[in-house]
Amino acid sequence: MYQKRIIVCLDVRDGMVTKGVRFKGNIDIGDPVVMARQYYEAGVDELVFYDITASAERRGIIVDVVERVASQIFVPFSVGGGIGTVEDMRAVLLAGAEKVSVNSQAVRNPDIIAQGAARFGRQCVVLGMDAAADAQMPSGYRVVINGGRTPTELDAVQWAQRAVELGAGEIVVNSIDADGTRNGYECTVTRKISQAVSVPVVASGGAGVPEHLQRVFTEGSADAALVASMVHYGDYTIGDIKSYLADQGTPVRAV
Amino acid sequence: MIAVVDYDAGNLRSVETALRHLGARFVVTADPAVVRGAERVIVPGVGDAAAAMGRLDRSGLSDALREFARSGGPLLGICLGSQIVLDRSDENNAQCLGIIPGEAVAFDERPGRKVPHMGWNTLIPRADHPLFAGIAPETSFYFVHSYVPRPAEVRDCLALTEYQEEFCSVVGRDNVIATQFHPEKSGEPGLRMLQNFAQWRV
Q1: Interchain contact, B185 vs A75, CB within 8 Å
Q2: Vertex B200, ends B103 and B29: CA angle to 5°?
Q3: Is A98–B144 a contact, with Cβ atoms under 8 angstroms apart?
Q4: Of A94, A121, A170, which has the smallest distance from its Cβ to B48's Cβ?
Q5: Is B129 a catalytic site residue?
Q6: Which is the most buried residue in A2, A47, A203, B94, by most CB within 10 A?
């Protein structure tokens, strides 16, 4: 039976997992290889490393992280953040990542999706999208970039469809409105996009309790759900989330 | 010694790290002579069947793989490897290795079914095989693909998987076995499967 995926997202800065804290900036919360290994052993289905390194050495640093993670964990993982060229994609894929995710870079240069798909196969190319509720847009959601700071002229559903036409094999929909609230995913935008495209859709932003995943899998038609702080600080384990989902009748991979 | 065939097709690195983790003796090679002389062979691969076959044909690896399969040595195909062991693929109308009769076909469009089939799914075993030793029947494996193997003969399908239809997820005959999923990305049971292959006595 096909199962809903639970994906843990790790923000990585200068080679360390970091977490943004309001008014305080970022604090380091652990070594990415150690944390990845712990989540692997706990039964995570997939991992995402989101690179927020700002320095010029960023590619070398993330490639090193990817190589070390790939030697330790045997479930798929993807890398996003700072992927601006086909060469960036090649570097992290060769280092052992399954997929690469493009977000703001794809808005500025949509051709990166087509180039990546042609070179590595569409299953390797993920479009990450930050969406904000906006009644002026046809779908009710606007694509925003640069971590939500910069609005674009793109409608979220139309952009998702275009990205799939260009060659994206999966779409991660991050709700800027829900992100960081821990009040639940934005099920409406997730469902609109999931129903509008033929490829898998991953819900992101807002997870606080296992019920939120259940809701986004049902009401949001998500194929997978991203979690971060609800597991990083020990509130829930992957096992807790999966046993809750299984009890609700949602198919998940046994831990 | 296991020869892992290197034809610039994607998931080579993850197969390599899994084998290293298992302590298996292996070599990554693009040399047809090394393939012919190997004890066992793994054909990994993701991406486009026609492009993959083009590279295998040009490098002489296609003939080496056919010869190796005929010689009776254990051969494991992974993902695209489970499609190119067949006669042909619908993907850009590729002529494939023809080691097992059959063809790869695209998932058709069905309401609510996402393609690629990406994520974890279970197997419905159709036959006992040493590759499955010690692996519980309800175990999940990681899939990512848009085409599926369709062996011509029912007995060459060793396991099915359900994705709004049942498709053949493990193809095999005699000394050849090929999984549509990625054992190297399927956690501990996947590693066990690779270990089983490394020890398989045909």
Answers
A1: yes
A2: 65
A3: yes
A4: A121
A5: no
A6: A203
pTM of the model: 0.96
Residue to mutate among A44, A123, A245, with most B CBs inside 10 A, is: A123
Give the CA angle between residues B49, B17, B70 to the nearest 5°. 50
Condensed to tens digits (0 to 9), the pLDDT of residues A41-54 reads 999 999 999 998 87
Does B114 sit within 8 Å of A198, measured CB to CB?
yes
Could you tell me if residue A255 is inside a domain?
A: no
The ipTM (two decimal places) reads 0.94
Chain B residue at shortest CA distance from A97: B14
With b for 16 or more beta-carbon neighbours within 10 A and e for fewer, the A43-80 pattern comes to: bbbbbbbbbbbeeeebbebbbebbbbbbbebbbbbbbb
Total domains present in chain B? 1
Domain carrying residue A222: 5-247
In chain A, the number of structural domains is 1
pLDDT per position as a tens digit, B114-152: 999 999 999 999 999 999 999 998 999 999 999 999 999
> How does DSSP classify residue B137?
T
Residue of B nearest to A41 (CA): B187
